[in-house]
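Usage

Read records sequentially. Each one opens with the input sequence:
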Amino acid sequence: MAYRETEKMRERKARARQNIIERTWECVAEGGFRSARITRIAGLAGVATGTIYRHFESREDLFAEIFRLATQREVDKVAEALNVSGNAVERLDNALSKFAQRALKGPMKAWALIAEPVDPKVEEERLVYRKAYASLFEQAIRDGIAEGCIPDQNARLASTCLVGAISESLVGPLSPTQTDIPPGQDNNEDELVNTIVCFCIRGLTGTRS
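and closes with the structure output:
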């Protein structure tokens, strides 16, 4: 008789897999992907290391799954921030601000998702999600061109410029090795966010009211 997995067994496996995912994300949120060692994850999850490989083919597959889940949450937040009242420029201003604010609120998480050196499989996922952000911005830019609040331009190229600008501008502030903070600027996140968003909006429109 062929072996048939019961519903209870499938639920147990799903819970075990979710537990591994959650414990891995705890490690990443605390110290980046470099701190998410399989032995440590297994200890936190209360399983043997071999159990992890029954749910994920490799360490890289586990990390790629973690990256997909975490980044999708951030993409969804950008989509929510774009889905507010106001013209396209105001909606882009809101989305870019929220992106930067969330990154600075959880710097290690953001560093892991935006800039930490990672395995090729995870880097592939990073490129996929950069395109996802760009796609959201592209539609908003097209809306702005149609509304007349954004000058006519190549919306696709402009959207990739936005993603590159905001991501690159956050690399230094998010870096775990960043210790050289000028006196009086350690709590100046609002100014940093405002400067980044001003640069992006001015690049699109030539001005920011």
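Summary fields computed downstream for this record:
- Confidence is low (pLDDT under 50) at residues 179-186.
- DSSP finds nine helices and no strands in the chain.
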